[in-house]
Write a structure and sequence with these properties.
8-stranded mixed sheet; Rossmann fold; globular; carboxylic ester hydrolase activity; Lysophospholipase; 2 domains; AB_hydrolase_fold; AB_hydrolase_Est10
Amino acid sequence: MTAVLRHCFTALLIIFISLQTAAAGKNIPAEINGLNGTLTLPENSTPKGVILFIAGSGPVDHDGNSPGSQTDNLRMLGDALSDAGYITLRTDKAGTGAGAATVNPADITFAGYLRDYQAWFDFLQKRYPDTPVYLLGHSEGALFATLMAQQHKPAGIILVSPAGYTIDIILKKQMSTQPFPPEALAYINDVIDRLKAEKTTENVPPSLNILFAPELQRYFMEWMQYDPAEELAKVSVPGLIIQGGHDCQIPPENGERLIRTAPDNQYAEIATMNHVLKATPADCAAAIASYNNPALPLHQELVPAITRFLSAR
């Protein structure tokens, strides 16, 4: 949530696709407009569908990793769903992977990320015209999946660890759990309120620059305009909401609000799953420790919950 976010497309969509079979014959690199992705194919079956992964906030790469967090969760999920018979596409967000050094953080916009994922979706539909394409969004990526589904009509959407409230509410709740002095917390809440009103704050203390750098303030202002529950209610394609009971960042009350507002979707709560899709104790310190343990497997209930939803389509 606090990592530096990255850039958007700025030119007309000119798609350059580079596909080359990897040594194992299963992973295939893909590229559009300088953004890199990895297609993971089922080895011995006709694909049941194609799933575009949409990562969470910050500079997250195609494996689900970012500075300060090495989980490999998206790589594990892509492999598992490929084993279940689905093609998956995991992408580096703009400014991560091979293109990280070429991006100016000031160029980032929420709308730019949305265009990036729309381009990947178009790529998949053109490459696999006779195969259903699904969207799987994790954390912030769930909102992008929701917004895309309003216009692009995928075969279905899977929202994993999604926010159910606007990001200003989420940020305030997250900050309230941190050991800030009362005056610092009041200042943070005031900055958030100003952003909600589409007003920036200048001369933020250096200690808070990781949260409120100028480029992040602009991004948050865009993000705050979307209520995830209200946006999900506008979606007509089948949806699955998966929430972790041990998620300290986005607790289950978020998924509960989504399903109340958009009851035509399916809802699954995985009691001991945390925000990065691993099984951990309820203690938040233990949950956060898993963010840097790529050897820890995915929660054993996650993939079955997804494949049950997909199989019913």
